[in-house]
Every structure is written in C-alpha cells, then in structure tokens.
Amino acid sequence: MKSTLVFEKIAFPESLRWHDGDLWFSDVLAGVVYRADVSTGKLHAVVDVKPQASGLGWTKSGELLVVNGVKREIVRYEENQELSAYADFSDQWDFNANDMLVDLDETVWVGTYGFNPEKDTPVAAALARVTNGAVDYPVAGLVFANGIARIDAHRIVVAETFADRLSIIQTDGEPKILRQIELPKGSTPDGLVVDNQGFAWVALAYGEAILRVNLESGDIQRAIEIPGRGVYDCAFGGENLDKLYVATSDVDETHALRDLPGEIICFELSQNYPGVQGMGNK
C-alpha cells in the first residue's frame, strides 16, 4: 500500500490518538505532546512532559492526561495550562510506565516495562488500573505491556512487546487474561488499535510492518509493509475514521533528538479494506 507523508522532523512519535478532528501524539524522547492538524500539516506543541511523554487520554471534562514514563506517573494538563498529579505508580514499579488507555468512564489502564530491555532478560509485570483516583494492579503476567485498545465494553487487548503476543483481558467484574494470541517470533508488537470488524492493527517496532490480527480466530495478516523503519504505533483518523496514521522512526534511538528521523505517515484503507473504520479513540 502506498503511504502519504503527513508529518516529519520528529524524534520518536508514539501514542497516536485521533481526538476532536486532530491527530495527537507524544514525541517520547523529546518529552513533548503535540496536536497535529492534518489539514494544514502544522504541529502544535501542547505541553512538555519531561523527561519522557508516553500514553495519552482525556477525562470526561476534556482535560488531557499524559503518562510520564520515567517518573512512573500520570499527569493532568489543566485548563490553566498547569500540570498536576493524577496517579503515581513509582511505589510499585521500578521501571518505566508505558502506554495507556482512558475509558469513557475515566477508568485508566497503564502498562510498564517491567525490566530494562537494554540489558535484562524479559520478566512479567502487572497492568495498573486507576479508578476514581485509586490505583491497583489487577492483571499480572504481562511482558512489557505496551499498546492498549478497547475491543468492546467488556474486553481490552494489550500488546506484549517482548513476548511477541497479544493478551485479551476481561475488564468488567474481576479483570483477568481471557486468552493470548501468539505472533511470529521477533514481531515486537508495540502500539495498536481495533477496527469495526474485530481486528487489531498492530505496529511492529522492529518488524517493519503493520499486522492485522483477527481477535477471535487469531488469524494474522501482514497488512502493510514499512521497510527500513521502526514502526511504533497506529491510529485510525479522518472524517470517517478510515485512514490509518502510523508513527515511525529510526530503530536506533541514539541520535534521534539530534537527527529527528521520526515521521507520521498515512494509509488510505478504503480501496484495500473497504468498510474498515476505527472505533474512535483508543
């Protein structure tokens, strides 16, 4: 599939969200959250969340929530343009907080690295939940929990980057892992999003592709090839939520802040995948 370059000169874009007609994302390494106007091609820096901005979401009143990965916390960007504490995981997690899903009822789900991916053997950690300001850790056993998306009112799907799998989790009642879908070895699933036909579109950090995974049967298709790039997240957008925006950068982060290799590209899905649309915000 042919792509269109939408935004460039970014260090490391992730956490793509379509919100109120604009594309939002975190430049993780720069610690900046952007609102991106796809109609004009302009990037608007919204807020600095140093040293590392990660997952994004919004409260029911429209306030922006941002994961600060290194500090292992969520901050709220208030109407007065000040940041305030929203949730803190540092007493339980020794390693970075990661991506996040904010449900319509303001329940928040957040993953953690659980280990140092540069030098440690992968180990499992628990998924955090924030409910009315209270933090608990109801789902254990996730290896580098990364992208999180809602499937329906009862289930979410979580990408486990260094386990090469997706975990489908029941979120009502007592949260638990319902089933897991094994991906090809070396897939490294990162950000993901769910479409209206029951498939997850999964960015492969080091796999140079977007997978389309049937969440019921487990069937896997390499839907989009993106050679020579790290592929870190994807989100549906556009007026009909039928465009797939994809965050890419260099797989070597060493000089990302200097060279700004990050790009956001767009794929029109209507021809190859007629009728496929997103489910709204992740």
From TrEMBL:
<comment type="similarity">
    <text>Belongs to the SMP-30/CGR1 family.</text>
</comment>
<dbReference type="Pfam" id="PF08450">
    <property type="entry name" value="SGL"/>
</dbReference>
<feature type="domain" description="SMP-30/Gluconolactonase/LRE-like region">
    <location>
        <begin position="12"/>
        <end position="249"/>
    </location>
</feature>
<dbReference type="GO" id="GO:0005509">
    <property type="term" value="F:calcium ion binding"/>
</dbReference>
<dbReference type="GO" id="GO:0004341">
    <property type="term" value="F:gluconolactonase activity"/>
</dbReference>
<dbReference type="GO" id="GO:0019853">
    <property type="term" value="P:L-ascorbic acid biosynthetic process"/>
</dbReference>
<dbReference type="InterPro" id="IPR013658">
    <property type="entry name" value="SGL"/>
</dbReference>
<protein>
    <submittedName>
        <fullName>Unannotated protein</fullName>
    </submittedName>
</protein>
<dbReference type="InterPro" id="IPR011042">
    <property type="entry name" value="6-blade_b-propeller_TolB-like"/>
</dbReference>
